[in-house]
Amino acid sequence: MRGMGTRVFAGAWIVVCVLLAGASAPSGAQFAGSLPVEAVRDVVPNRVMTWNLCNPCDESNVDRAAEIATYAPQVIGMQEACVRDVERIRDYLKSRHGLVYHVAYGSVLRKWGRCGGAPWHPGAFGQAILSAAPMTDVVTVEYPDGGSEDRGYMAVTTTVDGRPVRVFDTHLAQRRQETVRAEQARVLAAAVARHDRAIVLGDFNAVPEAPELGPMWALAKDADPGCGPSSTGNCKPTTDWRSKFDYIFLRDVVALRQRVHPTRYSDHDLVHADVAVAR
Q1: Can you tell me the distance from the alpha carbon of 213 to that of 206, in angstroms, rounded to the nearest whole number?
Q2: Tens digits of residue pLDDT in 103-129
Q3: Which of 15, 155, 188, 224 is least crowded, fewest Cβ atoms below 10 Å from its Cβ?
Q4: What SS3 state is found at 272?
């Protein structure tokens, strides 16, 4: 019994020492190997975002997730997105920021140089949409001519501002390929025109007054209220080279405000809009 009492006393003394050490340690450092959990937050239900992630760029998906969580959109359309990166971003949004998203992929290219993997099984590359609400009727379309690299668009039906909306996400051909982009924009506009209510997110690789964007301007307005197809418009730039390439086109959806947020984690800014969907 004496040995038992000694062990009990020793165990109690260890607990006291641990508690004292914890009380004197810096805040949040009481338990080695654990980190304080950030506050769980909700998405903004009427906020949509577009972001070209930049690829190939050696950026941390932890940082990308933190950028998205700062603005907590209901829906985000990504371009130049590798499936593996999107998976990690989604996981970090949940584990570090308490934001839970569904994901849909619109990959149109498999390329080891872009997304890693084995040379005989390269990663998938293209668009992706994260949505706080479930997505249905997912469609992926590869443009007949991608230009210097396969390009396409994806579309889903999901909820924005409490209403069902058809959401598109696209990435048009690289710069100096105007004729290719013109045909891509025509294909995209024909798909968008089939829906009375739509939001089109993406990197169009063209400034607002570029002729190839004519089919989109005929259908929808950009969420930037000062921006239009005229060269006299006051369009906020969205890239490191101070051009507007990233758009949130709205069809029967009203923009309440748009914001452009420069980021050091991509050569494209984050662009988000708060919108009102007609009842």
Answers
A1: 8
A2: 999 999 998 888 998 888 899 999 999
A3: 15
A4: strand
Strands 73-82 and 44-52: parallel
pLDDT confidence tier of residue 217, bands split at 50, 70 and 90: very high
CA 64 – CA 114 distance, rounded (Å): 17
Instruction: Enter the tokens of residue 92.
Output: 């970090």
The pTM assigned to this predicted structure is 0.85
Nearest to 160 by CA among 41, 44, 42, 40: 44
Of 74, 68, 131, 140, nearest to 109 by C-alpha is: 140
Do 268 and 274 form a contact (C-beta atoms < 8 A)?
no
What interhelical angle do 83-97 and 61-71 show, nearest 10?
A: 60
Q: Where are the alpha helices (DSSP H) in 98-210?
A: 112-115, 178-192
d(Cα 175, Cα 267) in Å, to the nearest integer?
14
